[in-house]
Amino acid sequence: LVAGTSMFEEPRKSRRVNIDQVEVTQAAKQGIHVRADVISITNSTVSYIGPSTESPHAFSTGIMAVGNACAIAGNAVFGGNPVGNGEIIGIALYKSVGCRVENNTVTFNKWFEYGRNYGIWTRPEAGGMPLVSNNFVSGAHYAFGPAGAFKGNLGADLSCGLFANRVAPPDKRFDLVENNGILSTSSAMPGDATCPDDPELAINR
User: Cα dist. 109→12, 88, 105, 191, 192 in Å?
Assistant: First the structure.
């Protein structure tokens, strides 16, 4: 586990990492960042990550996992601040063969003039198909994306839509059952809730 702005480099990747009931707040760029063969991140809370001055357009990520055979479950991510036209991601998962992301809550508390917010971002590699189920995302431009098997998820107060508009092969995203998204109809959060997307820009981000 490396909290804050640091991370494991691939040559030093751990075999197995278990994180449970960890609380992280006000880290500069990332709350929890794990690279391992087997990953478990459960029952943890990450809040108010960023802004980082590492780059002019820095991203902020609550939980980021790179690996396979993983479980990311029962966590809560709240708030976050990018820099410039950087983006905020509540939970990000890469590689993800044999992974599940379930029963997590991601809540953003304001809209930003530039960039986008993503609730749960899953990007499998080499045939991976994570199961993303029973999660709740609020106040994001996009709740989920771009690839995986999605079941029983709810997105509320969304600016753009339930799934990110990214180009992906048809066999990389499955909308199983009971996934629902509700677009924002009020100004309950500070900022402009208008969807900021340029489709071509989104595809190439």
Answer: 36, 12, 13, 10, 12
Contact yes or no for 147/116 (Cβ under 8 A): no
- 154-158 vs 136-138, strand pairing mode: parallel
pLDDT in tens, 57-101: 788 899 999 988 999 999 999 998 887 778 889 999 998 888 999
Query: Average of pLDDT values for 175-184?
Result: 87
Q: Are strands 60-73 and 100-102 parallel, antiparallel or unpaired?
A: parallel
| pLDDT for the residue 195 | 84
Peptide bond between residue 170 and the one before it cis (omega within 30 degrees of 0): no
Measured CA to CA, the distance from residue 16 to residue 118 in angstroms comes to 27
What number of other Cβ atoms are within 10 A of residue 21's Cβ?
A: 9
The model scores a pTM over 0.90? no
Q: Which residues lie across from 155 on neighbouring strands?
A: 137, 181
